[in-house]
Amino acid sequence: MQDLLEICCGLDVHKETVVACLLKGSVHDDKPQKTIRTFSTLLPGLEELKAWLESENCRHVAMESTGVYWQPVYNILESALDGTVVVLNFQIFSQIYLVYLVEQ
């Protein structure tokens, strides 16, 4: 899989927490810098997530659409990021992740 983004974030959304994995690095680097952080799903936690993504200059976020927990996260990030917030079906999200793991 060819790298296309220099900064992106994947979110794992749960009932009470959001786990964010931010990848940063040149598309020409062998391995991007990985940062993992956990945020609350309450409004202050989601605002902290938004501020962190903005401070990291991350404009591309993907999350899975399991249940309804993704909706408040999407609403907060959609209004803040001028890039892309993508909500994916779990099967598609898993396939992308598996391709990434196989190529590592």
Main features:
single chain; alpha/beta; Nucleotidyltransferase, domain 5; 5 strands; 37% helix; 32% strand; disordered C terminus; Transp_IS110-like_N; Transposase
Structural write-up:
The C terminus is likely disordered. It is built from 3 helices and 5 strands. Strands 3-2-1-4-5 form a 5-stranded mixed beta sheet. Helix 1 packs across helix 2. The termini are close together. It has one domain: Nucleotidyltransferase, domain 5 (2-Layer Sandwich), CATH 3.30.420.40. With 104 residues, it is of the alpha/beta class.
Q: Which percent bin holds the helix content?
A: 25-40%
Radius of gyration: 13 Å
Q: What best-fitting shape do the alpha-carbon axes yield?
A: globular
Strand content: 25-35%
Instruction: Characterize the largest beta sheet: strand count, sense, and whether it forms a barrel.
Output: 5 strands, mixed
Our count of helices gives 3
Cα distance spanning the termini: 10 Å
Task: State the secondary-structure class.
Answer: alpha/beta
How many structural domains are formed by the residues?
Answer: 1
**What's the name of the CATH homologous superfamily?**
ATPase, nucleotide binding domain
Query: Widest sheet: strand order?
Result: 3-2-1-4-5
Averaged pLDDT, please?
Answer: 81
How many strand segments?
5
- Ranges with pLDDT <50 over ≥5 residues? 98-104
CATH class descriptor name: Alpha Beta
